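One record is kept unedited as follows:
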Amino acid sequence: MKTRFGQFCPVAVACEVFAERWTPMVLRELFSGSQHFNEIHRGVPLMSRALLARRLRELEDAGVIEKTPIAGKRGYAYKLTPSGREFQPVLEALGHWGQRWTVRVQRDNLDAGFLMWNVRRRIARDRLPDRRTVACFRFTGIPQGNRGPRVFWLVLERSGVELCIEDPGFETDLEIEANLATLAGVWLGDLSFDDALRTKGVQLFGPRRLTVAFPQWLMLSHYAHVPRPGKPSASNAGLPTAGAAHATAHAS
């Protein structure tokens, strides 16, 4: 049942739209470039498909998003309206607060699929080799009870990046073996890639030209460079910078 606060206060009325369970994360996915139902759902895998469909209808009814049929295919493309785009600074502020003041990498928050979905859209494609490169990620330290995939492939090309949970059929050029919590810490800017390699929390296997270049392909979380109290920002901690083109702004 939709939350009602029974107040005419603009904050209360806005929260009736924004503060429903999962709605901020659905908006985050739309700001991150997801347009189709399955794309949005991959960013919120613990949300039921029925609830996602309902939230999208509610956001459409509120004038926050609009949907258009996909030419020649089933389904719809969803995009933010001018009203919806005004939520951008709200989400940005929430992300900054969460990065600064919360403990994000906790065992019950670890999800390899969610991490890889975000890595996929934060690759500096202009730094990739000229030819297609296939990177295979193998994770350890998956929380007990998590039945999701433990092995992922990124098919990396300057024209685009594809995430696969089954062998894409191309020769693997680079293998990454990683403890999930360690790579999540690198992703969020809590740990430098060099430190992760030194402790063997992340190990790279492949031609030296690729193992040396790989850390520079990762632009990390959009929030990795938010300074935290008592900690240096990512830009001062030896982490890859996020200035390359082809990134989507609000990936977690």
